[in-house]
Amino acid sequence: MKISKIIIYDEPTVPEIQINRIEKFLKDTFHTDVEVRRSFFENVNDEIFQKVASTRIFELKKPFSKHIPTELEIQIERKNTDNSQNEEKVLYDGFELQKTISKFIPTDEQNQNVLHIILTNKLTCTFDESDFRYHARALIGTNPSIISTTGIIEAPAKPKEYYLELMTDFSKEKTDEINKKYKGEFLEYNDPRLSEVLEGYILQAIMYYETGEAFCENKECRLYNAHWQKELLYSQLKNKKFCSKHEESFRKIINQS
Ligand SMILES: [Zn+2]
């Protein structure tokens, strides 16, 4: 394995993350050194908050252009409160955020054998040249890897019928009724299943860093790039296995030292 140590940064505003279970999962799976830290955004140079705020995006149909943040926006970053459930979500360019974070990793920890995995509530998005718009993303791979808990909830789509029913009536009452009807079929905020699903994304981050291969096209694989919540819950909670091809590359990785 190229990686000799994984440093994973928790997101303290998301209490569903069972960081100790995740740590154990990583140690048991990869038999490598794992260190858990409370948050990437604690004990870091104050400059970072201005830089992070400048990666905000406001227009979904335009490629990234650097935002000049207001004092209030910088203050919001400093506080790192969970705003993911607000109506007005703050969106960030995932690759720009990744670049920013990488600059704040101490030099002695910038080592290709040390993989940094940052869990965050920030909603990361990437601009897609094929349809010329931003899409929410749960995982921004490479080193550091960013995994967005809000992205896990927002990026894979809910059932089509859910949106159709909502289209007719947006009232709070109707929304609650529909949420009840489809309960369990997709991840919600404060969903206790989030932590286990996170393990799958962490696996994807590690495998991507080790092999350079992004995602899998096979729905029976934990590396599957789920477009629908239903697929996500199937591949990460029910099936929980690699396809035969990735089972083999996983074995190879853990047997190299
Ligand atoms: Zn696969």
Main pleated-sheet profile:
5 strands, mixed
| Count of individual domains | 1
H-E order? EHEHEHEHEEEEEHHHHHH
Radius of gyration: 18 Å
Tell me the number of strands.
9
- Given the C-alpha coordinates, what overall shape results? globular
Write the layout of secondary structure elements.
Blueprint: E1 5-9, H1 19-30, E2 33-37, H2 47-53, E3 56-57, H3 71-79, E4 91-93, H4 94-103, E5 114-120, E6 123-128, E7 133-136, E8 139-140, E9 145-148, H5 149-154, H6 160-168, H7 172-181, H8 194-211, H9 229-239, H10 244-255
Parallel strand pairs: 1-2, 1-5, 4-6, 5-9
Antiparallel strand pairs: 3-4, 6-7, 8-9
Helix pairs in contact: 1-8, 2-3, 8-9
Residues 216, 218, 221, 223, 242-243, 245-246 line the site of zinc ion.
